[in-house]
Design goal:
CATH class of the largest domain: Alpha Beta
Shape: elongated
CATH architecture of the largest domain: 3-Layer(aba) Sandwich
Radius of gyration: 24 Å
Strand order of the largest sheet: 2-4-3-1-5-6-7
Largest sheet: 7 strands, mixed
Number of domains: 2
Strand content: 5-15%
Length: 263
């Protein structure tokens, strides 16, 4: 009996943990608590008073209730499955979408040409969930035009950082920790200090586009690099995402057709 109760409790815990990051998790927890109380109450009454007919009806009701819950909370369950698939534990078994690099390079190339300030953080092993909570939660597919619109001057979220997880835009307008290093160039702005601060505290890769010069910089492992080319940026992103570099040149040309002319 102890083993059965332990397995049942672990099952409930696993389900709630599985759905904790979905929008309906609060409703599910509340509803699950109510159903659990009802289930225990009816079970005790049926077993104690030997209400066999009520027990048969209750069994049918229980089966339909489970099916109904699955139908009602289908969107939340689907989001939970998506989050489970994005767990770093499963990353060695699945190759991430190569288009992620194309879209990022295309985005950064256009932002650099138009001298639009931008700050993009790519999550690796260390979770950036806490930082994402400081901004606006999006959970959108990584799209170059969407990122460009987020950093459009005057847009509500253009001052903060965009958090990427795999091929998803997790959040925008996020606040990153500022670096307190005295060695950083005093002429650099808040975006560069924020990128370096993130690289000092996590293993994330931060990409910065200067609003004054359009130059691209990266921050990783506590180091800030200025004047990064698209080729160097591609290598940095591939390293962060754990992707191969077999088609680097082709992807770079697709991201910026004029890259060869500029170089």
């Amino acid at each position: 009996m102890v083993l059965e109760v332990a397995v049942f409790a672990l099952g409930i815990y696993a389900v709630l943990r599985f759905l904790r990051r979905t929008r309906g998790s609060g409703v599910i927890r509340g509803l699950s608590l109510v159903l659990l109380v009802v289930l225990i109450t009816f079970t005790i009454l049926i077993e104690t008073l030997e209400l066999k007919r009520l027990g048969v009806i209750f069994d049918y009701f229980r089966d339909f209730a489970v099916i109904g819950l699955i139908i009602v909370f289908q969107p939340e369950i689907r989001r939970g499955i998506v989050h489970l698939g994005e767990n770093p534990i499963f990353s060695p078994f699945f190759k991430r979408e190569v288009k992620t690099i194309q879209r990022l390079l295309r985005t950064v190339a256009r932002l650099s040409k138009e001298q639009r300030g931008a700050l993009i953080a790519i999550e690796r092993d260390a979770s950036l969930a806490t930082i994402a909570e400081s901004g606006t939660y999006l959970d959108a597919e990584l799209n170059s035009y969407l990122i460009e619109n987020l950093f459009y001057p005057g847009a509500p979220l253009h001052d903060g950082a965009v958090i990427l997880r795999g091929d998803r835009i997790v959040a925008a307008g996020c606040l990153l920790p500022l670096s307190q290093s005295q060695e950083i160039d005093k002429r650099l702005g808040t975006r560069h200090r924020a990128a370096l601060g993130l690289a000092e505290e996590t293993d994330a890769l931060a990409i910065v586009v200067s609003e004054e010069t359009g130059r691209i910089s990266t921050a990783f492992a506590g180091r800030l690099r200025h004047g990064v080319t698209l080729e160097e940026l591609e290598d940095a992103i591939e390293s962060a995402l754990g992707l191969a570099t077999e088609t680097s040149s082709r992807r770079r040309k697709e991201a910026d057709p004029d890259a060869g002319k500029n170089e």
